[in-house]
Design goal:
- The radius of gyration is 16 Å and the shape is elongated.
- The protein contains three helices and no strands.
- It is mostly helical.
- The model has no long low-confidence stretch (mean pLDDT 86).
- It is 72% helix and 0% strand.
Length: 74
């Protein structure tokens, strides 16, 4: 990976944006591959993995938007 596509070393929001995009790509690949496998167990684990990644993406997005409850503490 080239250094231009990587976030600034100390900016947590840049890292979160970068990782969010990578996780979205991986989640999308799992969903695409659901139709490529016939094994119900593989389909179940692919769907579960996509859902878990979706939760991580949501958490990173909320961190970036400062929407989670930790940001609202005073």
């Amino acid at each position: 990976m080239d250094t231009e596509s990587q976030p600034a070393h100390t900016d947590p929001l840049a890292h979160a944006r970068h990782l969010t995009l990578r996780l979205q790509d991986i989640r999308d690949q799992f969903r695409e591959d659901l139709d490529k496998v016939e094994d119900p167990r593989a389909q179940a684990i692919f769907e579960t993995t996509a859902e878990v990644l979706g939760g991580l993406i949501k958490a990173l997005t909320e961190f970036q938007q400062k929407n989670d409850s930790a940001w609202r503490r005073q």
